[in-house]
């Protein structure tokens, strides 16, 4: 067994696709080349049920280190930290109860604590159900907010990344009509600083090139279609440049992605959710990774939800999970 610190995969919603895509990736040999051990923060019975989807029986042996158990599927093994004891026979795909919500919370809390304690190298999160977490008494909108609170970080940035494109968002889950008033020079400057620092630390880019998008068509056309560019965005870019950041813009969003996807920039700073995610998913629908920038720990995630329509079928793609594990491993190697 490698002495390197393990990467932790949180199993996510027991009634979603998380457990089965973890085992699908294992069976596909996705983890074979990893130098670090992998430990799933999850539930042995739920994982055993997921193995049955693929016609596999699990052998279960005692674990070591952070893994309480080892799951053997054929010639492949996976460490499991058994943090819940749910009864698969009482659960229905797509219908998580409060016990499932508590389990999802427990997986994330445990994994975050292990990383903060220096016992693990990073977290890869499978999708959760926010309503079930609320039913269990969790008061966080999602993974990101919970991790930020546990890491005592006020501002984090959501990035989605693929081989050809990385996008970072200034605003995330907001009604489109609320975006202009939510944009401030300070929030954009903070986004630029966090993205710059993260790409330096975890991606070994000494001077990351950041393209900053405009909010309006044609970058506002000299104020004809709005003045956010001159009032909010340009001053933030100037302030970032004064701090030594390689940021430029505001760029018209309709053409910048063409160049960024060919390597002109290391990341594109987007003003709102769909501005960044439409081009990202056009290029990387199956294999994009969700990253949380600004945390002191490595955290990557699948770029999809619980996919209840596919849960239990074995048809859900493991490509995003595989990419998230690979990226977490690369990031962990940069700082270890």
TrEMBL record:
Keyword Electron transport carried by entry: no
Binding-site positions, substrate: 143-144, 281, 290, 299
GO cellular component terms, semicolon-separated: cytoplasm
EC class (word): oxidoreductase
PANTHER family the UniProt entry points to: 4-HYDROXYTHREONINE-4-PHOSPHATE DEHYDROGENASE (PTHR30004), D-THREONATE 4-PHOSPHATE DEHYDROGENASE (PTHR30004:SF6)
Pfam family, one: PdxA
Catalytic activity: 4-(phosphooxy)-L-threonine + NAD(+) = 3-amino-2-oxopropyl phosphate + CO2 + NADH
Protein's UniProt name: 4-hydroxythreonine-4-phosphate dehydrogenase
Record HAMAP family: PdxA
Keyword Cytoplasm: yes
Cofactor(s) recorded in Swiss-Prot or TrEMBL: a divalent metal cation
Keywords: Cytoplasm, Metal-binding, NAD, NADP, Oxidoreductase, Pyridoxine biosynthesis
Residues annotated for a divalent metal cation binding in this entry: 173, 218, 273
Comment field (misc): The active site is located at the dimer interface.
Cofactor note: Binds 1 divalent metal cation per subunit.
Pathway per the UniProt entry: Cofactor biosynthesis; pyridoxine 5'-phosphate biosynthesis; pyridoxine 5'-phosphate from D-erythrose 4-phosphate: step 4/5
Native source organism of the sequence: Geoalkalibacter ferrihydriticus DSM 17813
EC number: 1.1.1.262
Subcellular locations according to the entry: Cytoplasm
Function in brief: Catalyzes the NAD(P)-dependent oxidation of 4-(phosphooxy)-L-threonine (HTP) into 2-amino-3-oxo-4-(phosphooxy)butyric acid which spontaneously decarboxylates to form 3-amino-2-oxopropyl phosphate (AHAP).
A single GO molecular function term of this UniProt record: 4-hydroxythreonine-4-phosphate dehydrogenase activity
